[in-house]
Every structure is written in C-alpha cells, then in structure tokens.
Amino acid sequence: MSPHPLLTQLLTPNRYAVIFAIKGVVAMALALFVSMALQLDRPYWAMVSAIFLQIRPESGLVIEKALCLIVGSAAGGGFGILVLALLTPYPLLALGLLTLWIGLNSAASSMVHNLNYIYAFAMAGMTAGLVVILVMADAGTTNSQAVFTIAQARISEIATGAVCAMLVSQLLWPVTVKDGLRVNARKVINSTLAYLKLELEPGSSHKQRHQHADEILETLVAVNDDSSAVTYEGPEGSGRGRAANLLCNKVMSLLAVTQIMGRFHRNHGDLVSPAFSEVLSQLRRYFGEIAEADSYQEGYRLAHELRRSLLEQRTGFRNESAIVTRLTRTALELVSDLVVVLRAYNALESRDRTLLKAPMLETHRDPLVGLINGFRTAVIFGIGAIIWIQTASSAALMIMIMPVVFSVMFARFSLAELTPILRRVLMGATVAIPVALFFGLGLLSWASGNVELLMLVLAGPYFFGLLALADRATLPYGLGFCIPFTIITQPSNSMTFNAESALNIALGLFVGISILYWVFKVITPPDSRFMQRRLLRSTARDLTVIDDHENPENWFNGRMGERLLRLANYDQSSESSERYMTDLGFTGLNLGHVSIRLRKLIQDHRSPTVDRLLKEWQQTLAETYLLSARGVMNPGFRKVNARLLEAIHAQGDPDQKTVVVEGMFERLALTMERTARTVAEATGQPKLSSAETESLA
C-alpha cells in the first residue's frame, strides 16, 4: 500500500519543496514585520495575502498575482465604500447589494481561466465584504471617515502582503516562469509528435490516442496561461509571451490537420493508394526522429527534410484520386505548421523577430455556468449573513468571508475534481484549529509586541503548511491549514490570548467551509452531456461566422483550445470508454480549418454566385455537424457540395486546386456520415429511415 501523498511530502520533501517553504516563511515574516511596523490594524490579512502568492511562486506569476490582488482589493474596497455611503441606514439592503456584488464577481471569475485573474475577483468580493461587515458590526460608533479608514486599512494590508511576497520571490532563490514555460512547451511538442505518429499507426487504439490528446490539451492550456505572466520577466518577456501564444495556436492547427490524416487511413483504407501509403510511412518515421532529436537545430533540419521528401513524392504522383491529392497537400500543411511550432519553441529562449503574432487561446465563456457559480457563491454568503443576523456572533463573520473566497477560487473546477479538493481543504482546516489553539496561541500570547518571537513561533507551523502547498496533490491541505491558522491566531502588535474568541473564529471557519462543501454538492451545473451539447452548439455557431474575421485560423484556434479541454474533461468525468464527444470536438476543430483552406483554394474562382453558395455551404456545414452529433446523417450536404463545386468549375477550367477542392468535399461527406454512424452506435439509437433523415435534415 503506497503512503499518502501528504505524508510523503511532509516526511520526505524534495529540494524544491524545502526552498519553496523557506521562501514562503520569509515572505510571511516580512509581511508581518512590515505591517506591524506600519501599525496596520490587522497584520494577519497581509499574511493571508502572502499565502495566496505562494501558490505557483515563479517570479512572473507572483508579480501578476500581486497586481491582481491589489487591483481586486481596490475595486472591492471602493464598492464597499459606495454601499455604505448609500445604504448605511438600510442594513438589509446593504447586505443584499453586497450579496449581488459577490455573486457577480463569482460569475465573472467563471469567464476567465487564468488563476491569477480569478484571485482578483475573489479579492474584490472579500474586501467589499470585509469593509461593509466590519462597519455594520460596529455601526453605532462609525462615521464616514471611519468607513474610509477601514477600507484603506484592508487594501493596505492586502497590498503589503502582496508586495512583500513579490520582493522575496524576486530576491531569494528566484524561479522564473520562462523555465517552466520551456519545459511545458517541450512536453507539448513531444506529446504532439507522439500523438501525430500514433494517429498514423494502423494498430493504435482509440484509448491511446485520447490519452495523448488529453495530455496535449492540458499542457497547452498551462502554456497559454503562463504566457501572460512571462511578460513580467524582463525586456525579453513580451517576446516569449508571443512565442508561447504562437506555439499554442499552431499546435491546435496540427491537431486539426492530424484528425484528417488519421481518420482517413483508419476508416477508408480502400482509398489509400500505395503512393499515399508511402506518404504516411514517411510522416510516421520523421515524427519519431524529430521527437528524439536532442537539439532544436536537429529537429528543425529534420522537419525541412520531411517537407522536401513529401514534395518529391507528390511530384511523382500519377493518376491519383482527388482525395489523395488533397490529403497529400494536407500533409505538407501539417509539416509547415510543425516548422512554425519548432521556431516558436526556440523563440522562448532566443528572440525571433520574424515570427507572426498570434492571440492567446480564449476562455470558453458559458453564461449558464457563470449564472450557476454566481448564484452558488451568493447562497453561501447569504447563509453566513442569516447566521450573523440571527446570532450577532463574531464567528459568523468568518462564515461570510473565507468560504466566499474559496467558492470563487474553486468555481471553475468540475464537481468530480472539486469534491476531493474541498475535502482536503476541510481536513487542512481541521488540523489547523487545534494547532492554532493549543500551540500557536499558547506560545504567541507570551510574544505580544515582540516581532522576533512571533516569527520564531509561527515559522514551524507555516513551514509544514507551505511544504504541503508546494505540491499540486497536497496543495488543498496546505491552503486549508495556512489560512485558518493565520485567521485564528491573528498575530499583531497588541494580540492577546482569548480562548473564547479564538474558539469562536475556529468554529466559524469550520462551519463555513462545511457549508461551502455541501452547497457545492447541492448546487451543481447540469449534467456533463448537456454541457457538452452546449459546447458543440458554440462550435457550430463559430463555424457560421468564421469568414467574418481577418485572421480566421488564429481566431478559431483560440476559441477551440479550452473548449476541447472541457469536452475531454466532461468525457473523463463520465467514465465513458467511447469518448465520442471529444471526437466531435476535434471534428469541429477540423471543420473550421477545412473552411479556411477552402477559401484559400478558390480565391481565383470567386464570383457573386460562388460567394452566395459558399455562404449557404458554410451554414449547411454547421447544421450537418450538429445533426451528426445527434447520430443523424444529412443527405442534403452532398447536394450543397455538388452545387458549390459546379459554380467553382463555371469560373474557369479545372486545375490542381479545384481537384483538391473536389477531394476535400468527398472527405468531408465521408467524415460527416461516419460521425453520424459512430454517435448512433455509441448512444444505441435505432437506425432512421430515409424519410426521417430527410425531415431532420
């Protein structure tokens, strides 16, 4: 039986974890020292701020996170002042408006993927709550000047902790985003090459291909998120950020093109000619060699060698079918994208001014998910507010504050991921309570006003808490321990040992996190199949407007990145072996690229008639895609293909490009028909009659 990951991390930590924990202890000690020296009212909020910055402590990420915390706190403090200025005589209305603000921030956090931006929304909700609730708790002695002072104090405390953690990150054993970015970029390139090779292997399994695709998508999103933080790391940072964005964008193009090649030879082997079989063999061999190359220069040379080899093979084609001609061109496009990916990887270290700028992958924004997350967080705050109103207990303040922060932070996780995370946070808090009560306060009560002794007492518990925070698997334990421990002990210049008050705060935190756990269990998004259908409909909508954008390939890749990851995550959580929804996502990615390439191929054959039929074709393509996702074939799709091809031929004699277009249409029709059959079989649908198919189409 393997040991628990938390015990492994605490008893046998690696060198990185120890350095990380030491840096974290120094950052929190500095935050405490500075806030006490500045005579701030609640120095422990500076320490809480410093704790948040220990999650992913690379210098660029810490700077970005610090800015997000400060901006979010300023926004929350400003809103808190506004609420009190307008509604101080009406406390229930003030609480209602504050609940709405917290819900809106939670909903907005669902519309971003970057964790640092999510912290900004969490701080905006928390700071507003602190300002309003602390004033309302002592409304009889509070005036407008005191309201502003409280808001200023909360913002100052959070900003102090953020700045101190940022300084320690920069000065003490700095770790850069750039290093991790190159590791992840290399990982995603190798995974993509392995996936490309696997797609072209006749004996590869569906499960193997999806395992590689899942790994690529997860790493790709990680590279995309880090590309914004690397811009803070010196003058070369912005160039590295652009290179990372370009790499992500072109990997998406590789995935789209590979889908064509892999599915064709697996499902239509009778159409694979000997010449095209040789093309596939060349691709498999070179992809393996590029993955094994020990330098960028060697990989780049092999990629160019592969491109020359494919050009020579295409020159020797005789009487090949239109679809083989098209797919050979697709193979060349694939290699061209691979060359750009390798150059983008090299630009993460060496500046390359010739690379084109590409946008970041976009976050998929689903208003329904935002509405559910916003409502859930508002319910958590509302429960705490009701308990506070009914009991007037100071412990209820913690029920209203910290669970809200965790709710915003964890909103983007699926329920399958979230359940173990919340359990570990709750376990960390359960351990923090006795440690804070019997060890922390027992010793800290003798150290009031003596900052050196305070730091000495706090260093031990924080060191072990930060060791847990250093590893992704044990991070929730560390978060659940460090924050409650800080809020219960509340180190400051004039701290006193009050067992009753500390016990009330501990009870409030425990109850608040328990409420958080159960509200997340009760208020959940719709089932995964429903959410996947929404993702597919969003893809179909994008297909209909793909021609409205100046750079459609970059735009579409950016839109599809996280969308594919969500489809894959939903499939994984459903524990279905079919994974056909993920396949449908990749089909949608492929259809977008086919649409873009079609417009390039017929550029010399455009006319008002062609443009009209092209628009009709694009709409029919999106409709056929959604029908195939329901297991229904659309017989009208081939008819639209034929009308558009006829109009293209009417604009000039057939040439190599029109032959490629003919092959493209045939391949698309085969793809749609195969997809409909696969979905129908996976869902156990009865075979439809031709009349039923016509009516649905």
From TrEMBL:
Q: Which domain of life is it from?
A: Bacteria
Is the keyword Nucleotide-binding in the record? no
Transmembrane stretches in the record are: 16-38, 66-86, 92-110, 117-137, 157-177, 368-389, 395-413, 425-447, 453-470, 477-493, 505-524
Cellular compartments annotated:
Cell membrane
GO cellular component term of the entry, any: plasma membrane
On whether Cell membrane is a keyword of this UniProt record, the answer is yes
Q: Which residues form a coiled coil?
A: none
A GO molecular-function descriptor = transmembrane transporter activity
Q: Which UniProt keywords apply?
A: Cell membrane, Membrane, Transmembrane, Transmembrane helix, Transport
- Membrane-topology annotation of the record: Multi-pass membrane protein
Q: Which named protein is this?
A: FUSC family protein
